[in-house]
Amino acid sequence: MKLFRFIKSKTLWANVLLIIVACALIFWGVNSWLSSYTRHGDNIVVPNLSRMDYDEAVTALEQRELVAEIMDTSEFDPEFPRGSIINQYPEDGATVKKGRPIRLTINPLKARKIEIPQLIEKTKRRAIYDLESKGFKVGELTYVPYIGKDVVVDIKVNGQSVKEKEKFEKGTTIELVLGQGLGNELSPMPYLRHLALEEAKQLLLEASLNLGSVIYDEEIKDSSLIVVYNQRPAPSLEPSVRPGAEVDIWLTDDYTKIPNDSLQFLHPEIADSLNNAAAPTP
Fold it and tell me: Which UniProt keywords apply (predicted)?
């Protein structure tokens, strides 16, 4: 009987009501605090800041109520303008809250200078490796009378001779003067068709030849697909070009313009066997 009287008492139900109200108030308070803390509903898309200078990047972020924070400066990258943004975190397109710091990596205003390695009397292959591993680019190859074939005789920057151990910015183009050996030897002309521009440059460099004119097709639709479709001098399996000669190339993304002659130059033994098989028997 006492239990029933307790259940029916006003004191019990008043306490229950107070507990429910207190729980509701606590839930509302916590939810309001979380919404305020996380700024729910204030999502902002991070803009693409690549290649902007620092002031432009700061302005673009402030317009979106975001904060710029310099993370660090990296090794100089010649592909980006000096002092421009080369990396950001979070990346562009990410969704963040208002006031979020965006960390920026900035390209230095000045490239770090690097010593030219010891190249004189080294072979062309070793000199190219040493230069590229240091961050230099290899430019024109010039051949002069010298007993050592493909041996470095001189080093130039912008046509002017320079000394080993001199310092230049990373990415500087270094020209090599090489010995042509005892005789006026000729070399086969490499087959460049189907190659991308950088691949053609590398193959010419390995063959001791220089890239001449680069002519682009007028109707290129996708620059990521361009390849060599013509070259001058023409490819040859027989020795026909002197070291240091210039080679002009034509580029296109229309593969129907490329002559169907790769088998003849890249796999001549297969082409010969096919020709022999097709020849009529006497």
Answer: Membrane, Transmembrane, Transmembrane helix
